[in-house]
Amino acid sequence: MKHLTTLSLDKSSIETILDNAARFKTELVISSKIGGRSLALCFFENSTRTRLSFELAAKKLGMLVIDLAPEHSSLSKGETIFDTLKTIESLGIDCAIIRCTENNLLDSFDDSLKIPIISGGQGIDDHPTQALLDAFTIKEIAIRSGKPLNELELCLVGDIKHSRVATSNIKVLSDLGVQLSICAPNQFRRSFDNDNIVYYDTLEEAADNSDILMALRIQKERLLESSTDILSAESIISEYRINHRLLESYKKLYIMHPGPINWGVELENGLQNHPRLLANRQVANGVFVRMATLEYFLSNQ
Ligand code: NCD
Question: The pTM is what?
């Protein structure tokens, strides 16, 4: 595997990365095989968690980190993303993380870039390291609940149609044997190439059958319509808002959210410190998973 996209991850690479992330989480003194190597952060779309945790992961491993800051780059002079990455490669930088709006951009680079390019989220179909950190967090919950992964059910709730997190999680979690379901209004559903996915109409139905609900925000930046459409989308999704009452009725139910959270839309306000909301744990685990991802891609180069 050269570049990291969700589709380039197979079960054995997923398991290796998750095992190494567990080692990084418990290691008191970090053992790095890639200290001194360099990494470019190329975020052509906004990001807080993914960008900062890749930067922190790389620095913990003793790597040199360079931020492209696209708004100050030659992209504004008409340079293409490919030429920008070729420049990064020619500078002698060892690896780049890229976040972009296009689908399948990394596939189009094929073998024309020698350094590995890791997707930090591309289009609506790809966010491999988010799926890996979610899988890592779900494995921790499986251990805590005393259930094997293939007995856990995770339901994706909200705007599935425009979510790269949904697509990547479906691929990675189904490879690991997690049972998957979707709970969303019709306008936010889409079909996946996976016959095992169950669809629920109501949040109660989803909670009855699931161990974990993963709430996904309305991807406003991908709704091309007007702000009235966004407001109507928010009111449609209100039936799917996870609230205190639901968590009181289902005492074993965990809630995940990749962030950014729109409080009062997908999660009721006041749930910020709920002990079964795993959003902060997901962020924390993201650093170890990204350390393991960087090591996986760079240690054999
Ligand atoms: C996702 C993203 O930004 O692509 N979040 C993340 O990386 N933690 C999902 C989202 O924007 O909703």
Answer: 0.95
